[in-house]
């Protein structure tokens, strides 16, 4: 089983290395990822100029474009026989309204538009804790083994967010939950160059039982998203 792995943090990000490692427990991995960081580009695609593809080693290719570009090129020319598209593991959460801004999520959404399906994965980060990628890799391996074994639903895919736990905390429970409906706070500060967004991601509103609440409460939040 072939798996197309991409992200929006760039091909050299630690998160995509963690996802590739977890995915190799399930199938043959081909990484097709942006040459550099593309965080927050949402579902942007490149038109009107060339997109360059460079080999970065066996089964690793970088694309001079967005996450959606990577999926387009990957499914057309590089891994047309991919069974699933996996995106991440993002350096930061993609919860609630984030799914509309996220390049990580948009990569899988682009695949779904063309008849494939997959999973977007993100690692929420607390300010005072470092990422623990080996631990996240272990969680991702377990979650992917479950999600990819389920019968695919046309027009649907999964969005997964891992909590950021202290090293001494036990491994988290996996919960299936809806997308939180609250928007991110409208908050900007004035600087000489203009307005700078300063909304507090960690204090955002959350609906009980939705994905923001689940992840912030220390659980792995799994949400099924649909195109319509």
The low-confidence parts are none
Largest sheet, in brief, is: 9 strands, mixed
CATH topology: Stationary-phase Survival Protein Sure Homolog, Chain: A
The H-and-E topology, N to C, reads as: EHEEEHEHEHEEEEHE
Q: Strand order, biggest sheet?
A: 3-4-2-1-5-6-7-11-8
SS-derived structural category: alpha/beta
Distance between the termini: 28 Å
Average pLDDT confidence is 96
Shape: globular
**Helix amount:** 10-25%
Beta strand count:
11
Explained architecture:
The protein is an alpha/beta fold and 228 residues long. It has one domain: Survival protein SurE-like phosphatase/nucleotidase (Stationary-phase Survival Protein Sure Homolog, Chain: A, 3-Layer(aba) Sandwich). The protein is 24% helix and 25% strand. It is built from five helices and eleven strands. The strands form two sheets. Strands 3-4-2-1-5-6-7-11-8 form a nine-stranded mixed sheet, with helices on both faces. Strands 9-10 form a two-stranded antiparallel ribbon. Strand 9 and strand 10 form a beta hairpin. Helix 1 crosses helix 4 and helix 2 runs parallel beside helix 3. The longest helix is centred in the middle third of the chain and has 15 residues. It is globular. The chain starts with a strand and ends with a strand. The relative contact order is 0.16.
């Amino acid at each position: 089983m072939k798996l197309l792995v991409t992200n929006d943090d760039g091909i050299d990000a630690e998160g995509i290395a963690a996802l590739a490692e977890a995915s190799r427990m399930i199938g043959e991995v081909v990484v097709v990822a942006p040459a550099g960081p593309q965080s927050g580009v949402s579902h942007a695609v490149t038109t009107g100029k060339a997109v360059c593809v460079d080999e970065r080693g066996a089964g690793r290719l970088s694309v001079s474009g967005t996450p959606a570009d990577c999926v387009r090129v990957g499914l057309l020319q590089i891994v047309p026989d991919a069974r699933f598209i996996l995106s991440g593991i993002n350096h930061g959460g993609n919860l609630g309204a984030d799914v509309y801004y996220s390049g990580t999520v948009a990569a899988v959404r682009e695949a779904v538009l063309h008849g494939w399906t997959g999973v977007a994965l993100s690692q929420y980060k607390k300010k005072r804790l470092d990422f623990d990628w080996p631990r996240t890799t272990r969680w991702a391996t377990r979650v992917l083994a479950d999600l990819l074994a389920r019968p695919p639903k046309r027009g649907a895919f999964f969005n997964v967010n891992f909590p950021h736990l202290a090293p001494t905390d036990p491994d988290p429970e996996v919960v299936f939950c809806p997308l939180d409906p609250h928007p991110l706070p409208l908050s900007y500060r004035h600087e000489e160059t203009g307005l700078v967004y300063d909304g507090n991601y960690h204090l955002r509103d959350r609906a009980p039982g939705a994905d923001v609440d689940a992840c912030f409460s220390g659980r792995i939040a799994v949400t099924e998203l649909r195109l319509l």
